[in-house]
Amino acid sequence: MNPNVPRGAATLLDFIAGLETNRPGRAGYETIIGYRNEKPGALPKPITEMTLDELLVEQKRWVRNLKAPSGAAGRYQIIRPTLLSLIAELGVPLSATFTPELQDRFGLALLQRRGWSQFAAATLSLRDFGNRLAREWASFPVLSRQQGAHRPVERGESYYAGDGINASLTKATNAEAVLAEVLNELSRAPAPAKPTPVPLPTDPAPTPEPTPPRKGWGPLGWSILGLAIAVSLVVAAFTLPLPF
């Protein structure tokens, strides 16, 4: 799972991917409609190695040549019109590769379209959010009786029931349990970071005693002494009696 997918959303995407592909790990990211990717020679290369441009071409081919009911691709079974809208919405270049990380980014964007932020902020009810998800993924059941895409549908049915292709792949109670688990996960505060140990203070290094000045006359002392001797000689010269 892409590490940029927030907690709670990752749990929900794992549940949806299990319904949509029924394939664990990387195999889910490589799945296409009807598991045609598992037939030798059906694809020129895995879809996780295709650029978006290449994948869009392949999706058209699956419907036209392989008689697939749609071009659903990847862990979240994204059909071609939805993929085109995601590329435009997120500004992803067609040269980007359909990697697992990019697929998770697309999956999160689909959750956001259906009200993930409001659900996480407790401004959208569990039932209403679940019913919105059922419109995005046919395998996710509606959580209340309503008008579906083709006929009225009962709680637990696919929103697209009646088209002869799609059906819910889990019970409404299972979907509600996962959504409740997601809410519980969102309500749990993240574990506090471990405090960084503070090093114990150390005694400061002793200040060295100042070096006492060296004893001795020094240059200035000798100069003063010399001046004193010179003055004494001059004074003596004037005070001694002359010999005549």
Quick structural overview:
The protein is mostly helical.
Question: Can you describe this structure?
Answer:
With 244 residues, the chain is mostly helical. The protein folds into two domains: 1-114, no CATH class; 115-187, no CATH class. It has helices at residues 9-21, 25-29, 52-64, 80-90, 100-113, 116-120, 126-136, 172-187, 218-239, and strands at 146-147, 152-153. Strands 1-2 form a two-stranded antiparallel sheet. A hairpin with a 4-residue loop joins strand 1 (146-147) and strand 2. It starts with 8 loop residues before the first helix and ends in a 5-residue tail after the last helix. The model is unreliable at 234-244 (pLDDT under 50).
Roughly what fraction of the amino acids lie in strands?
under 5%
| Global structural class | mainly alpha
Tell me, rounded to a whole number, the average pLDDT.
87
Overall geometric form: globular
Q: Please compute the radius of gyration using only Cα atoms.
A: 42 Å
Helix % is 40-55%
Give, in order, the helices and strands: HHHHHHHEEHH
Residue stretches low in confidence (pLDDT < 50, at least 5 long) are: 234-244
Number of helices: 9
Order of neighbouring strands in the sheet with most strands: 1-2
The number of domains is 2
Main beta sheet strand tally, sense and closure: 2 strands, antiparallel
Beta-strand segment tally = 2
Termini Cα gap = 125 Å
